[in-house]
Specification:
Blueprint lengths: L2 E12 L2 E12 L3 E5 L6 H8 L7 E6 L2 E2 L9 E4 L14 H13 L6 H13 L15 H14 L4 E5 L7 H16 L3 E5 L3 H7 L2 E6 L1 E7 H6 L2 H10 L8
Helix pairs in contact: 2-3, 2-4, 3-4
The structure holds adenosine-5'-diphosphate and magnesium ion (MG).
The site of magnesium ion (MG) has 4 residues, from helix 1.
Organism: Natronomonas pharaonis (strain ATCC 35678 / DSM 2160 / CIP 103997 / JCM 8858 / NBRC 14720 / NCIMB 2260 / Gabara)
Family: Belongs to the ABC transporter superfamily.
EC number: 7.6.2.8
């Protein structure tokens, strides 16, 4: 299986604040990987490094074989950031428009064909938001908005979906449906990188777990992760007691 994200000995600090220390981790095409670790352990930072938002202080990161910061086929990457359930940001476009933008990015032309429109309609159908097509994105509930972001990634035919705590603030039913959808996308070949602090949910859905607290404690299949001491070691590093991350 080919490697789509290759992190080699990456270290990154925000000024004096170290966030990621000597992490090496590669993600294969089609892998569903979960990132777990305590609050402030560098999960979001590592994800941002992987998608090329920051340059590592040392080490290297490749995305589809290119340095992540130089990667410019953004449509191959669907990203749902932390707190996108927060309604304070304004996005004065409708759901259909937001998804069409994803399609424009992929198609690379300013006029969409019937095929493009079918792909957009299918994406809305897949995530079950057709009835929301004409609603403004910033007026949706958290769960609806997450699904709209996923539909945009689908319409752009993204190869990787990167999700940072996507169901914070989403009710339990919608959350379960959301994770079923991720499973289905992954079965159809999408590589998924998921930050989720609920370990039961995480291990139920992902193939592999990367457990971090600044450093990488474990990256391996779910069973090997659960059998290891990685979680207690990673959580123990912060405070000596197990913390529950409700951030
Ligand atoms: P997580 O997502 O696991 O909660 P983060 O990657 O957000 O962790 O944060 C890792 C560390 O980097 C923390 O100590 C956090 O306070 C710090 N940090 C995160 N973002 C910034 C930033 N923009 N500027 C300065 N420090 C930051
Ligand atoms: Mg985070």
């Amino acid at each position: 299986m080919s490697t789509v994200v290759d992190v080699q000995n990456v270290t990154f600090a925000y000024g004096e604040t170290p966030a990621v220390e000597d992490v090496s981790l590669s993600i294969s095409d089609g892998e569903f990987v979960g990132l777990i670790g305590p609050n402030g352990s560098g999960k979001t930072t590592l994800l941002h490094l992987m998608i090329g938002l920051y340059e590592p202080d040392s080490g290297s990161i490749e995305l589809f074989g290119e340095p992540a910061t130089e990667f410019d086929e953004g449509e191959r990457l669907g990203y749902v950031g932390q707190r996108s359930t927060d309604r304070s940001g304004t996005m004065p476009v409708t759901v259909r428009e937001a998804i069409l933008m994803g399609r424009f990015a992929r198609a690379g032309r300013s006029r969409l064909t019937d095929e493009d429109r079918r792909i957009v309609a299918d994406a809305m159908e897949t995530v079950d938001i057709r009835e929301l097509a004409n609603r403004r994105v910033d007026e949706l509930s958290g769960g609806q908005r997450q699904r709209a972001f996923i539909a945009r990634a689908l319409a752009s035919e993204a190869d990787i979906l990167a999700l940072d705590e996507p169901t914070v603030g989403v009710d339990a039913d919608s959350r379960d449906r959301f994770y079923d959808l991720l499973d289905e996308l992954n079965r159809n070949g999408m590589t998924i990188i998921l930050i989720e602090h609920d370990i039961d949910i995480l291990t139920k859905h992902v193939d592999t777990v990367a457990c971090i607290n600044r450093e990488l404690y474990h990256h391996g299949d779910t069973v090997s992760f659960l059998e290891s001491d990685a979680l207690s070691e990673a959580y123990g590093r912060t405070s000596g007691i197990i913390q529950h991350n409700h951030a």
